[in-house]
Each structure stands twice: as structure tokens, then as C-alpha cells.
Amino acid sequence: MAAGSEDLTGLGVNTHSFPCLQGAPKGRVTLAQVPLGLREGTNAVIGGGCLRGWDGAGKGLEGAAVLAPQQCFHLVAPPAMVDRLIAEGAFLMTPGWLSDWREHIAHWGFDQETARQFFQETTQKLVLLDTGVSGDSLAQLSAMGEYLGLAWQDIPVGMDMLKLSLERLVLDLRRGAISLPPPERYFADHLMVIDLLTELLTTGGEKEALDRVEELFALLFAPGRLSYAPAGPGSEEAAAWAGKDFAWTRSGRGFVVRMLHRGQDLGSLELEDLAFAQYKESYLALALPLAKVCALAISNARALEARQKAEQALRNMASIVESSKDAIIGQSLQGVIVSWNQGAKRIYGYDQDEVLGRHISFLTPHDQPDVMTRKLEKIKAEEPTDQVETVWLTKDGQPLNVSLQVSPVRDEGGRIVGASSIARDITKEKQKAEQERRSLEAQLQQAQKLESVGRLAGGVAHDFNNILAIILGYCEMALQGVGPENALHHDLAQIQEAAERA
Description:
Blueprint: E1 44-46, E2 65-67, H1 73-76, H2 79-87, E3 90-93, H3 95-98, H4 101-107, H5 112-122, E4 125-130, H6 137-148, E5 151-156, H7 160-175, H8 182-187, H9 190-201, H10 206-221, E6 225-230, H11 236-240, E7 246-248, E8 255-261, E9 264-272, H12 280-323, E10 327-331, E11 337-340, H13 342-348, H14 352-355, H15 371-380, E12 388-393, E13 399-410, E14 416-425, H16 427-481, H17 487-501
Parallel strand pairs: 1-2, 3-4, 4-5
Antiparallel strand pairs: 6-9, 7-8, 8-9, 10-11, 10-14, 12-13, 13-14
Helix pairs in contact: 9-10, 10-12, 16-17
């Protein structure tokens, strides 16, 4: 460039197409990845944000200026076009970034399903600002659109904007102002936002997600005041939001965005006293798709918490089942065993792998009725089943008395999909009850014997008493006819006294 020149007249400009280095892990960029043209006889290098902080020292670039706006598309498209496309929900790319799109998505930690969900929540279409430096850009763009399930658009651009951008950056460099103006610095850093959102989508609970959401909005927009209000069902605020995604604050220096995910209102986020209130429309253009992703993150965090609670409840239930002394056996409606707890192993002696897949009737002795089959038929017919007593065999062939309760198992839709049997070993209880029964029978027999003896003794005493009454009657009449002076009077008195004692 000639001394004092304000343009690029006489300056040789070369373009190079190589994979975008944006977001590359430290140490990934090697000298072999930098084209030779950038390493030999170069006075200045201009590129996207991936070159920011790249040290050319020792690589043939000593003394060269490395000029890099935050995004490559600012080099080849007018700011008005960039802002309009972003406001329309476009994800902007240049050929260098597009050539490595699969690796970028993998670096963000997305599989295809997560990437589709993320991009479809935040993006209306994929837009390539095609400078023509790569011959397979259209094929890559089509493949990316199919992978994410999004529409795409190719916009051919010439090198005129690259020339103008270079002139502007050269002038900014001379004036000591190499940073971009606020509209570009704050509203277009897609990749930085995606890195932040990647962390947001990997949060744990809801509180952590909300903290990340506030951190993200505070970092991007630097508001004087930031507050989140959870949604209240049936509240006046919810009615006021009908059909709206945002509202301006009364001061005119901020806005409120609504957090919606699949029709569910999760709350609203208010940003007040924006640092650059004159750009609030551009702020809002970025905030609206961000709010959708933040709502997705909050919803996922809630679902994760609910799933963790449900899994903990299942673990607790499984622990209870495993620690039960009773045999708890799960089976299909056809009677095939699908679960076998430690209680069942302790009582019947079979390990779990010995019984899974077998029909539960193998526990029933051949001379006993198959109670389980009848119970399962009732469960399939949705009829009530009562507790019954039956006999099951242990592994070593010993019969056990069992108290059996069979209950239906239902899925989330309420449909009966199996049965759960609680079988309690009551053999000792039955033996004790039998012993008590026999003891009571023996006591009853003894009581009956005593009662017979009592009846016999009572009958004898009654008859003997009748005889004594006759003796006493005749003795009294004899005494009346015999005076005391008579020798028989004393004898009769002795007979009367003996009879009375008897």
C-alpha cells in the first residue's frame, strides 16, 4: 500500500479456503493447517474471529498485522444485510466455517437429535454468504440442512465488501480503534452464543439452569437490572401475555421476553437500563431466539429433576422389594417370571437366573391345584383376587405352606401388563396352629371325660340321697313311737345321726 493511501490501490490480495478454526481446542491449530500463502511475504492477514489472538511469530509472519472481526460474514456482507438476516432468524455462515460444520457441531457436544432440537428452536433457516472460494459449498449446505431438518439459502457475494472491510480495518488500525462498533460486536457473535448455550443445555437442576440463563443475558446485553419471574397459572400477567413474545419496559430502555417451550409458559425475563438502549431492537432480535433456547434448557432441567426423583423413587422401591423377607415375584400375564427378589431366593432356594423366563407353575406340586393360573385369568379379566393359601415346592423338593396375594401391574396408561405375587411362607405358622389345635382337642376331650364323671357322680349322689331320705323318714317315725327309756331309742338316734352325716 502506498504511503498515505486511504484505499487498497496496488495492494495484492489473495484468498484461501481452509477449514474454519473457530472454537478449536487449544493446541489443535498447527502450522501445517495454515496455507503457504499466509506464511510467506505477508504484511497483513484478515480473517474471522478464529484468527483473533493467533500468534504468527516464528511462522513467517513476523511484523504482520492480523486483523479479525468477530465473524467472517462481516467481511463480505453489509451490516444492514447481516442485521436483517439475523433478525429473520438466519444462521449465517461463510464457506470456511461450512466446510467443517460436522466437526463444529460435534465440538459443541451435540448429537443429531440434540442439534436438531437446538437449531430448530433458534433458527429459521441456514444462510451461506457464498464468496465462491470453495467448489463444494452448495453440497455441504444441502447436507447440513438435511442433517438439521432446516431450510437453507445460498447468497452469492463478491469481493467488494471484503475490500471495503479491509480498508475500514486498515483505517481503524491506523487510528488505534480496531474494535468493532457496538451493533456488530453485540448482535452477531453466533458461535460465542452457541458455546454459552451448550453449557446452559448441560446444566443439572432448574436452579442451576436459571442461574445460567441470567448469566448469559447479563453477559450478552449488560443490562442495569435483570430479573426472572416464574409463570403463575391463571395470573393477570399470564392473561396480559396472550399472543405476545415480548414487551417493552415503561422506561423505553429495556424489554421483557417470555419463556415459552411447546406451549408451556415457564416465566419471563426483564432486561432494564440496557447499556446501548439505542440498539434495543437489535438486542431483541437476538434475545427472542435465545429465550426459546433458555426455555428449552429450563424445561429440560425440570424434566431432568423429575426423572431423577422418579429414578430415586424406583431405586428406593427396588431396595424395599429386594430387602423384603417375603417372596415378591413379577410375572407376565402368561405366567412367565420376569423378576425374583432376594426373599424369593431365601424361601425357595432358586437364584434369579434359574427362574427368569420359566412359568411360575413349576413351583406347584403335581398333586396340588394350579392356583396361579386361575389368579392370572382373573387379573386379565380385571376381576378382584383374594388372598389364598396354597402349597409350593422349594428347590430341594420340600413343600411349603404359602399365603399368596396376586395383584395386577399397570403401565402409565393404566393398561394391565403383568402381575405381582407376594408369597409368604406360613409353614411354621401352620405347624404352630396345628399344634395348638391338637392341644385344644386334647383339652376338650379331657373336659368331656370330667364332665361324664361329674354327671355320673351327680346321678349316684342323687340316688343315694333319696335312699338316705327314706332311712331318715322311717327312723324319725320309729323314734316317735319309742320313748327314751326304751333300749331301742338310743340305737335309733345313732342311725339318724349317721344318716344325716351321710
